[in-house]
Specification:
single chain; mainly alpha; 2 domains; 5 helices; 2 strands; about 65% helix; globular
């Protein structure tokens, strides 16, 4: 979907500026990796799924941003992978979806 890159870049910004768990160099490397991955994807333009997304957003009472992900998964007959529990709860009602769980971090002794 054409907003996915912006959404991912925003997450990198959040981890760099707000959470402070990425430094500038790590953020830059992450953006490079993200760009390589994004360039290999087939992008579904928002224009193609706008009606379906608005319908989902209204019926499910979720943001259009979240509804776009659900509509894209439906259009592609794909599984929606998300770490967002609220999005998963809504998506799982209407399309194939899987909740990603954060990797447990081990704290050295």
């Amino acid at each position: 979907m054409d907003i996915a890159l912006a959404e991912c870049l925003n997450v990198i910004w959040k981890h760099t500026n707000l959470l402070k768990d990425l430094d500038i160099k790590e953020a830059s490397l992450t953006i490079e990796d993200l760009t390589k991955l994004y360039n290999e994807l087939t992008i579904t333009p928002t224009q193609e799924i706008k009606k379906e997304a608005m319908h989902i957003a209204i019926i499910q009472n979720i943001t259009v941003y979240d509804a776009l992900y659900i509509a894209t998964a439906q259009k592609l007959n794909a599984t929606l992978y998300t770490a967002d529990q609220k999005l998963y709860a809504k998506a799982n009602q209407i399309t194939k979806s899987k909740l990603l769980k954060p990797k447990e971090q081990t704290i050295p002794p």
